[in-house]
Amino acid sequence: MEARLNSAVSPPGNAVAFPRGTEPAIPRTGLRRVPALARLRRAAGVIALALLPASAHAQQCALPGNDGPGGTLTGVINTYYPATANANAGVTSIQVGTSSGAATPIAAGDLLLIIQMQDAQINTGNNGAYGDGVNGDPGSGLTNINSSGLYEFVRATGPVSGGSVPIFGEGGSNGLVNAYHNGNPSGSQGHRRFQVIRVPQYSSATVGTGLTALAWTGTVGGVLVFDVAGVLDFNGQTIDVSGAGFRAGGGRQLAGENGGNTDDYRDDATRDYHGSKGEGVVGAPRFPLTQATLTVTDIGVEGLPNGSAGRGAPGNAGGGGNDGNPDVNDQNSGGGGGGNGGTGGLGGNTWSSNLARGGFGGVAVAVTTSRIVLGGGGGAGSRNNSTGVQSSGGAGGGMVIIRTGSATGSGTVTADGVMGQEPANDGGGGGGGGGTVMIYSAGGGLGSLNVNARGAAGTNTDMVAGSNHGPGGGGGGGYVLMSSAASVSVASGSAGSTVTVGNHYGATDGTGGLSTSSLTASQIIGIDPSASCVPSLTVVKTTSTPTVTSGPSGTTATYTITVTNAAGRTAASTVTVVDTLASKFSYASTGTVTLGGGATRPSTSNPTVGDTIATWGTFTLPAGGSVAITFTVNVSSLAPSGTYQNPATARYLDPGRTVVNGTTTSTYNYAGSAGENVTVNVSDPSMDKRHTTGFTIGTNGTYTIVVRNLGNLATSGTLTVRDTLPSGLGFVSGAGTGWTVNFASGIVTATYAAAVPAGDSAKFTITVSVAAGAAPSVTNAATVSGGGQGNTANDRDTDPTAVSGVPDLTLDKRHTSAFTVGQNATYTLVARNIGTASTGAVTVLDTLPAGLSYVSGSGGGWSFSQSGQIITATHAAAVVAGDS
To answer: Between these two residues, 119 and 27, which has the higher pLDDT value?
Structure first.
């Protein structure tokens, strides 16, 4: 059977839908790569491929809802891994490099997307056969798309280890359906790149602001993909991956060089003429524009065969604008637009020579439900005057793939190409091709969505200067696949203008893209959407130690958690059992793990001693299967008396749902049951210290110390209170019924041998003398220990005490007249007593700086003397408290 997708069936700017019943039926085994293209339709740049017949499909799941409720999704949520080696169909592991994007690493049971980003081949002749190998313009297209755009969902069977991620797929031997290729450019082959993307599996989620993809870097990114088992609320928000697709050709200021030709279809980017091609399924130019930072970088290699400059359009990437005078590079034409579902437009003509040498537009790729690509990058315009990144093309639109149980709310999903960077006096860049959006909702709810995968307009030129330079070609429309109707636009981008709006000077619009509203789950290659896999687990938690007694070393408690899968449900695999323990409880050991009803434990992971969140894994629970875990926890001596409750949770492979028996996680409802209640009995002596009289120099003061038992058990053994007296306080006496109070080496030690009943207290007092050397405020702490104490959280109390009868002088100095050379000036000094007692005699020393000399001093009761630059002022009379 042959599937033909021809974007020329609709005028540019209009959405194209497959007529009902005629959309290509894509088998779950994917596309068979053929040695050469069956047919090439040059007018629209469409590639037709032979497809294999459909095969039977057995339901396969990852860990639906494994990431739990997603909450409000913002930013980049995917983790991207670049492939580092080829992966043949049927293999069960993939070699990967260092991840980018989100920090969440791959784990067993994770859903992964494998997608070939670049793999196509082209004819590299420097003539009209460039690209597709067919003589005559446009010099665009490709000779073999190979694996470009092929994708599939797989399940991780373990984390990345040794640079390899193990997977379970729907291909032969439970491996990959498709073959994927990775390699550097060589000969007629550009970059061959595919990536492995961790796909979050939410039970439910809400779209927040800024949800997007990591922009394509040349090895990873460009794709936002997530799976929701239950309800996805679009929340009136916008998901935007515009410009996150294939990169544009970077605009560079070139001075010209001998050896170029105005008819070049390709040439080395290191030559000093012609604009850079964009990036697409064939590979990357040497000088791409990074859209996020608006920087042009040298990747160090020609990622497009035989050069990445010139008007030829490799695959869906726009060609660079040729210069009409390569020797000096001053006859600037525009870059071609990128393609995807539609074809990019032609770049505008050269400057004063008015030659039709603009970059050709990227072709429309034969996108289907089993082959999807990023929007192609626009080619750069030829440039010799402008600065920075001007004349760069626009990046292609990224890719959004969403699979959900149902959807609600209005929202917008946008994967548009973006415009290039407008030059001051040179050729304009081509617009980026529209990206790809695939949304499958098992329960519908997509009718309020606006979905866009539009090509960007070509860049305008000289709209102020008034001199014709080639504008950029418009980007082709993208590709939208929906499981039900929504408001969709895959419009193409219009050609740029020069001097006046509408003067396109040879530049052309892109063509419209493709869309369908009949996407089915079976057309999505690989592991099924979460909505197809709905087990239901129940969790029960009990204890065999409903009452425990704690002491100085704490105590232990024992629990059993039982998890059961309902009958008639799909198996819940890679189940983990999680117990978030009560405060002051920590994991100690596991007793028994009992499997029932055919349950298995494929791999073993137990908590670590001291964990406050205990986790056991991993289990497979078929319908009716169960696991019962008995374990012991340590109860800290810091745990107050009382009854402790806490939940237990099972996390399992199938999604959590909003309906009964269909949740991502199942939690034991401890509030509605007493089966796991543990009551802790403990004695809890606490310290309360305060001064009960004022503290004045030359008199005695009193502290009252109360030991209260806040627990529900009487104390046992001797209670000991220690209090280290601060400087200036002397021990006089201590007394209290049942207390023995001693003093040695500055420390008061008081002991109490009798039991203090729960809720009761024992009190004693300490009398201290307040010496003249005491500070204006004294602070000290008392601690209590012993008595079979369980909780030590309240065994210390500190009492700050103000001391009366202490003088406290401050000095205030300021000048009271202006300082002028040759004239006298005056300082005023004020000594204030802010303390609570009178001072003795007061002496003030003031060292004069160089340039000042002492003349005289005056003040009631003050006498003055001079020694060099030091002035001594003495006040023999006392300064009473509050005076100066």
So the answer is: 119
Distance (Å, whole) CA 308 – CA 127: 14
CA distance 210 to 546: 49
- Which two three-digit tokens encode residue 832? 């204030």
Contact between 431 and 381 under an 8 Å Cβ cutoff? The reply is no
Neighbours of 794 (CB within 10 A): 15
Decide: 429 and 249 in contact? Cβ < 8 Å: yes
Of residues 305, 304, 139, 123, the one with CA closest to residue 218: 304
CB-based contacts of 57: which residues, under 8 Å, 6+ apart? 28, 170, 522
Mean pLDDT, rounded, of the chain: 87
- How many whole angstroms separate alpha carbon 261 and alpha carbon 243? 32
Contact between 436 and 407 under an 8 Å Cβ cutoff? The reply is no
> How far does Cα 82 stand from its chain's mean position?
18
- Residue 600: DSSP 8-state: B
Structure tokens of 166? 């193990």
Q: Is 118 exposed, middle or buried (0-12, 13-18, 19+ CB in 10 A)?
A: buried
**Structure tokens that stand for 722 in this block:** 């220690």
By the 10 Å C-beta count (0-12 exposed, 13-18 middle, 19+ buried), 716 is classed as middle
* Residue 87 clears pLDDT 70, i.e. is over it: yes
Say if residues 276 and 322 touch (Cβ distance below 8 Å).
no
Please name the helix (run of DSSP H) or strand (run of DSSP E) that holds residue 39, with its range, or none.
strand 39-41
51: Cα within 13 Å, side-chain hemisphere:
23
Q: Say if residue 511 is preceded by a cis peptide, omega within 30 of 0.
A: no
DSSP for 275-321?
A: PBP--BTTB--SSEEETTTTEE---SS--STT-SBSS-EEBTSPPPP
Q: Is the separation of the CB atoms in 541 and 577 below 8 Å?
A: no
Cα torsion through 211, 216, 220, 221, rounded to 10? 10
Identify the bridge partners of residue 283 per DSSP, sorted by sequence position.
280
Structure confidence at residue 39 as a pLDDT band (50, 70, 90) = very low
pLDDT at 790: 66
Q: Which residue has the tokens 């004063």?
A: 352
Secondary structure element (H or E) that encloses residue 398, with its range: none
Nearest to 496 by CA among 391, 339, 357, 377: 391
Mean pLDDT, rounded, for 248-259 = 96
Instruction: State how far the alpha carbon of 401 is from the alpha carbons of 61, 207, 241, in Å.
Output: 17, 14, 11
d(CA 724, CA 746) in angstroms, rounded, equals 6
pLDDT band at 654 (very low <50, low <70, confident <90, very high): low
pLDDT of 47 higher than 80 = no
**pLDDT tens digits for range 602-611:** 999 999 999 9
> With bands split at pLDDT 50, 70 and 90, how would you rate the model's confidence at 31?
very low
Amino acid identity for residue 746 in this structure: G
Going by the DSSP 8-state scheme, the letter that residue 43 receives in this structure is T
Rounded Cα gap, residues 570 and 384, in angstroms: 65
**Other C-beta atoms within 10 Å of 601: how many?**
15
CA distance 68 to 666: 11
- Give the whole-angstrom CA distance, residue 471 versus residue 459: 6
- The secondary structure of 693-758 as a DSSP string is S-EETTSEEEEEEEEEE-SSS---S-EEEEEEPPTTEEEEEEE-TTEEEEEETTEEEEEE-S---T
Instruction: State the pLDDT at residue 699.
Output: 85
Could you tell me which residue, 732 or 335, shows the higher pLDDT? 335
Which helix (H) or strand (E) element contains residue 215?
A: none
CB-based contact 709:764 (threshold 8 Å):
no
